[in-house]
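Worked example (supplementary).
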Amino acid sequence: MGRYIIRRLLQAIPLVLFVSLTIFTLLQATGDPLATMGGRSPTKSEDKARLRRQLGLDKPLLEQYLYWLIGNDWAKFDRDGDGIAEAPGTRYGVLRGDFGTSIVTKRPAMEIIVDRLPNTLLLMVTAEIITLFFALIIGVISAVKQYSIFDNVLSGFSFITFSMPIFLVGFGLLYIFAVKFREWGLPYLPTGGIFDPQEGRSVSQLALHMILPVATITIISVAGYSRYVRSNMLEVINSDYIRTARAKGLTERSILYRHAFKNAALPLATLIGLDLPFLLGGAVVTERIFAWPGTGRLFLDHLELLDYSVLMGLLMLITVAVVIFQLLTDLMYTWLDPRIRYS
Amino acid sequence: MATATVKPVRLNLVEGEAQAQSPTQRVIKRFVRHRAAMFGLVVLIGVLAYIIVGSFIFTEAQANYNDTSIRLQAPSAEHPFGTDRIGRDILARTIYGGQISLMIGFLAVVVEVGLGTAVGAIAGYYGGWIDAILMRITEAMLSIPSLLLLLVMAKFFAGKFAPIPFFGRTLSGSVIIIILILGLTSWMSLARIVRSNVLSIKETEFVLAAKALGVPNWRIIINHILPNTLASIIVSLTLGVATAILTEAYVSFLGLGVQSPTASWGNMLTEAQEFTVIKNAPWYWFFPSLLILLTVLSINFVGDGLRDAFDPRSDNKV
Amino acid sequence: MKRRLLLVLTLMLALSLVVAPTLAQDRKVVTVSYTQEPLTLNPLYVTQWFATNVIDMLLTPPWFIDDQQQAVPVQVTEIPSVENGGISEDGTVITLKLRDDLKWSDGEPLTSADYVFTYEMIMADGNTVSSRDPWETKVASVTAPDATTVVITFNESFAPWLTALFTASPAMPEHTLRPIFDAEGTLDAAEWNKTVNPGSGSFILNEWETGSFLSLVPNENSFAGTPKLNEVFFRILADDGTSQNAALTTGDADIGVFLTAGDAVELEGAGLVISQVASGYNEGWYLNVNPDTAHPAMLDVNVRKALVMAFNRQQIVDDLLFGKTRVATSYWDGSQYVRPDAKPYDYNPEEAAAMLDAAGWVDSNGDGTRDKDGTELVLRFIASQRQIRKDVQAVVQQAFAEIGVGVETSNYDNFFDTYGEGGPMSTGQYDIGEYSGSSQFPDPNTADFLCSEIPSDENPEGANWIGYCNEELDALFQEQLKTTDPAARVALFQQIDQIIFDEAVWVGVWYDADLWATNARVIDAKYSGADPFWNAVNWDVSS
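After joint prediction of all chains, the assembly is encoded as:
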């Protein structure tokens, strides 16, 4: 087991490096961060030239990647932008934990990401839990009462929500519950943000502002998960050992919840495990609609600015998390299902 | 000319006994029994008819004709779906926009299936280090959150493709871009499925026999192995179109998808984002949304039906 | 004894009944809705509009440009001029006389030494400042002969000094920042960049919740008077068409900016006050007259005039912009530099057709498009990806088709890229380019029409994308750059404006002022195009 883990981790390293190089190349080739820097007053050409040298953006791609990876404190860089590298570098590189500084805000990239991470996790984990809760209920009942009215209506409904673009749901909820309810004098929900600045970051404020974004994400996600639960339950219910249990005379309830459900839940656990790391990336569209300050919005904002330190930092964080969670999920699968063993 | 299909066997059993059917016939029969799938098929054909017939009723010039004095008008006899922000007829635009959305959906899936099948088949068949490298690349791409990768690629390719003529229409380069990036970011799961199918078929007797006979590898793959992974491919293809249409809507919503003046259902929704429009012109987003919903829904139903139809175990149900 | 106790208690009760309502009075809070988060609050590193507005409230410059585009002294006692000795006779030396009661928010005095320090920081190696203009090339030295005097010596007379000196880079606190610079060799990562503490504005930063909001509260040590408000919030919302409007409609935000015309109509209906603030921008057609890249028809001034006259700009303003603005008459529309009695070209498609006929462009082969000497009159009309421009392109394409002029439209992400970067405008791959441009507002200077700024391999950063070269115009531009007398400068620009109009190389489409929405409860908020929040200290709310 230990050897298996180590082998997997070792195999993961070239994978992560490959991903980092690919994304780095893509981002660099996409455009010039200095071009968008000025906003309304575009940066003058002499300043652009100087900044390019000071920030090391004039170096060839692979050299920039190298500095990103292992830092530049072993080399000299051009601090005054005159074209001659004379000052010792100050970066330690990603392998030593330094993700560089944001080109536009000058703050350390990891600091920026970590600032936003709790907000995203709050939103995504809550949404995931609520989604799972409803998905399990709907999935199990649909499977048990297959082809009944309940199953058909719920299945139909989940197909519909599965087929809708998420921003329609988001805007719809926003418009009805935040704008219209207020107009009609009913108790209303806030239009966006994470908490009302005047009230402060209290639990009730967070809960209030989470309702609409969580609802949006849940409505879209429940469909997919519940279909999965349903089909797994169906497969298990129709399997031999359940038939045996029935023949043995066990109560339906005991069969369903002690045997069928546990075995149907196993693949779902795998699915969740594989989905979890992607929660770190937030829900880009939902965060945008509801102005939720999470990592999804962070990505969008910094993509506009081509601020590659922050973009790389976030993407690498997710990639590493994916690798780790894939390993954890596989291990958990082994532990839960004794039929599977890895050499 | 050795093929792997077995001719249907007629057993002269007791009269009245059902005769064994070919696999294809069984699949079709199971599909037809699936009510939701049939409903989906009917709706899908309806949408296709809407678009095809519509293109004969309205010319593209009519779809692009603008008259700002009648902008944002509610549905009327003259303009059954209302008019958009510069006075174009929304009904006509949904027809031509539908052509684009469906085309994007279909072509993106062609890219996805082509790439995924090729990678999966080659990896599964040849095994060894080819398999290892291809699978590592697949895993690497799966590790990156797809929407984020999509956005980065959209920005990367932006503006790099010139408009192209296509069957009498001129499409902006952004259509090519979105097809490309949708295909490039979704082939991975199919590759894994195809690979595992190929792995299990590889060791069967008729493949071993073909090899012994000296049939070249590529022929074995195309003539023997792929036909037996067809089920997965078809299901993947169908559901892929639905996902592609939805993803196009998202990417256009974020501003990086199909660019005007080419209309697609997705970017018609982006145009409708302005607050004035949401409040006062609900028809602007209602009709494209309805069409997206109907199309994606029916494709999902059909895909679900196909999946059940190909699954021999579903015979036990009902 | 007991009676006295009772009396005291009764008095206290009565007092509390009076005091309590006063204490329970609402705090005066204004919320501004922002669609972008400020990147940083150190003015050296950022030109982002959303950042500089907040910085204006935390750090004061020598003077503000108010909503009438006039300079208002803030840190100086008076605006320098030749009469008061602030500007030397030849215009190369400018002296700032500071008030003697200037303070930082931590109580330390603000002196001319802080100005010299700021100049040093701009020029220091190790600081990746966003711009060294004009300091690097135009300024010879900055000295402080005494605590309230700053002397700036230029290499030659520099007309835009009013808007270029210390307004983008206000004085920063030497006593706080020099130790940091000495220790780290750079101010790039200073904590002060996020807090501006100490600052010199009428407000100080109270809290910055990343991605969410900034909170500003009054600066107790403000030398420019104490604000009437208790707190100002900047709420960061999504940059889509809806969130800001939803927040303004429901009252979650009081002030919003960069509204579209449609938003403005909606919000006005909801009771907000809409204001148009001149920011120097005018949406215009830049007509390519570079003989190497433009369609041959574009080189004929009568063809250009005909194109303008076939373009119904008033219809665009009425239908697409809900009548919320007007047709722009000049590149400098909205300022004092416009030629007298300025009027746009009329909309007259019949005359336009006649002018095209007279210029030799007729449809000789019956294909619906005019031609001459075998060349079809098909023009390339390009713009960025903004929706409103795509709408205009569609309308123009149809209108021009009716008088026999073919139009091919394209939209680019890299629309504003320079010649060196391969941008479509700068490399001349167009005939009509539409975008919203401005001079170096509030200064009228611009490089867009200079012969020396035509982009080429030798000059990849050139800003004269229309390729226009007129010696008379060039001479006028050179002269105005050296004219420090405001009235004389206005006269020069009026001549410049007339030439550009007569030559029809730049044509106004609409006056692109910023549209602001303010909740009716906010009183006394006057927005300036150059320094929007210049009078935040006077803002108040009605109860």
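Two points are worth noting when inspecting this output. Chain A touches chain B through 46 residues (CB under 8 Å). The two ends of chain A are 7 Å apart (CA to CA).
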